[in-house]
Amino acid sequence: MTLAVLACGDDGAADTPRHLLLVSIDTLRADAVDGDSARRAATPNLDQLAASGGRFTDCWSPVPLTLPAHSTLLTGLPPHDLGLHDNTPFPLRRDVPTLASWMAEAGFATAAVVGGEPLARGSGVERGFERFADPPRGAAGATHFGEWTARDVTDAALAAWREFDRTRRRFLFVHYFDPHQPYSPPRDCLPTGAAMPATADDRYRGEVTHVDRELGRLLAAIRGGGERCLIVVTSDHGEGLGDLGERTHGYQLLPSTLRVPLLLAEIEGAATRLPPGLEGADRDRLASLADIAPTLFELLAVDPIADLPGVPLHRPDGRHPARVVETLAPALHFGCAQQYGVRGEGALLLRGGHDAPLALPGADWRATGHEDERLLLDPGRAPPSAEELSSWRSALADAFVSRRPPATDAAVPRDLSPLGYLASSDERDRHALLAPAANQHGRSALARRATIDRLLEAVATLDGGEVLPALAALDEILAADPEFFAARFFRGRAKLAQAESDPRRGGAAASEAAAEFARLLATAPDYPGASLLRIQALALGGEFATAVRELESAAARAAERGDAAIAEVAWLHGSVLLDRERAGRPNPHFDAEAGFGLLLAAVRRDPQRTDRLRKLERALNDLSRTRDAPPWVAPLQQQLPRR
Ligand SMILES: [Zn+2]
Asked: Residue 131 burial (CB < 10 Å; 0-12/13-18/19+)?
């Protein structure tokens, strides 16, 4: 009998928690909150939930990247089904039901507070939430995401919880971003006895402790209401902290970046217990973020979304399906090998990027007899049987069909083919197929780590406003590796920054930036942001007709995909029209009114974007139109920091 049978009406069954709090703590390694390894952080609140509720010890993320992993958590579908492989340029598809939309349909009041920019409005995560709070964005293309601290997140979550309609069941999704780099915990959250200055590992653990403290504050308030609430705490991915040379996450497939904590508990006033329905569950079973949505539907007695691939956590079947894992970001951004694999019971099967050393303390690597594969066994586990391995390979083949010859099918979505996706008559495969074309170098991210690190250093220099040293570093990288398209992208950005800061020689730098982006786009036509930056460079260099033409085509593409870039295109369109007007070269097809309208709409939609507000302000001044601004503009202008 499933729990759904017990459902009775909108308020759920008698033996069902009334509300749901789903907490994701970004970048949280499973061993930071479990066991007694050197990675362990002080987390009294999470420990209490685990001790009185339940901890699943073998839960895996399908991908060590924030937006794709959360998309799986919030839809129950893996990244290859969603066609969502990185934070950009893949917003969550609009045709897929989400946990929020489904819970709303079941009568829940829904709200989300997200602490990090990758999940901010526009990512698609906001869909289905009646109320959605997100942090201000970081500077465009910066190395650090915009984020809220755990304290801000808890404050916003408490406000959302207080303001929920009390007559309805409630679903609150809360995302803490603090353990994501940079690590800067409050001093009193650092581990006891930490050396000063604190090491990166200690600061990471301090961030985890900080989140635990803030989660405690949120739980205390919910307990104060006295109603039964199901609490689920998990993470999108872990953090390398130096394992196999990986400091952060996303470059390789590793247990430290893929294994995540998973805690479930029911609270009611001061009481904490295992949620009804999980009593007989095998908590050491292989689990995935994809299992959470189907579990919640059953534990909360909500009709489930049909056909989710995950297996509810309490289902007693002895065996659990192997789960496909992937990281394609190194291929998308740095031209490295794609890595993908399968997490089966007791082992991780990996493909791709084999030129990397396998030094991982205590790791038990095995060959499989397949030249493109290696197997990492859990400590003390026997290798999988030939039959198991073959079923894992089938799972992989089912998700990704690799090494197919490039297709000539005209139906290939234009925006996917350049990134190495191949055509297929199967709609799902269109998002999933991977071609060697994306393996520009075919080498692992680890083997190319020195080059990638040099690039990231140059980008940090650029973000710090030191344009010329950044340009010198980028030129050096490109001299050694002219096809390194991420380096080309940032060289374009550096030239653009130079054009913006040097009005005298700006025209030449702008043209060079536009040419740099054009060269990049010839290799990777949908490299995130490149076409819009090229348009900015064209407008800055006074090439308005080309800029407007390229904008129109970008707008058509964004509209076709229904993606969030459309807002960006609209803003840029307004901006280019006004630049043209200010340069005394009015557009024959549009007057300044169209530009003002687009710019005003963009500022109103996202008032946190001070760069846009400044642009609007400049246009209003230069065209002597300040008195035409709608009344809501002035208060925003007053909040602008003056330089
Ligand atoms: Zn993340």
From this structure: middle
The residues with which 56 forms a beta bridge, in sequence order, are 262
Structure token pair of residue 560: 């076709």
Share of the chain above pLDDT 70, in %: 84
């104060």: which residue's tokens?
Answer: 224
- For residue 555, give the nearest of 579, 581, 574 by alpha carbon: 574
CA of 636 to the centre of ligand 1 (A): 31
Q: Which range is least confidently modeled, 84-93, 381-390, 491-500, 501-510?
A: 84-93
**What distance in angstroms lies between residue 79's CA and the mean position of ligand 1's atoms?**
14
Residue 480 belongs to what domain range?
Answer: 448-530
Q: Which of 152, 213, 143, 142 is nearest to 177 (CA)?
A: 152
Which of 406, 438, 470 finishes a domain? 438
Q: How far is the CA of 25 from the centre of ligand 1 (A)?
A: 8
Q: What is the pTM of this model?
A: 0.79
Distance CA(564)–CA(548), nearest Å, equals 19
Q: What is the DSSP string of 102-124?
A: HHHHTT-EEEEEE-BGGGSTTSS
- Ligand 1 center to 67 CA (angstroms): 7
More confident residue, 102 or 622: 102
- What CATH code is carried by the domain that includes residue 522? 1.25.40
Q: Report the distance separating Cα 549 and Cα 543, nearest Å.
A: 10
Q: Report residues near ion ligand 1: CB below 5 Å.
A: 26, 66, 236
Query: With 50 as the cut, is the pLDDT of residue 403 above it?
Result: no
Dist CA 177 CA 366 (whole Å) = 35
Q: What is the CATH number of the domain that holds 24?
A: 3.40.720.10
Q: How far is the CA of 134 from the centre of ligand 1 (A)?
A: 15
How many Å apart are CA 251 and CA 335, to the nearest integer? 12
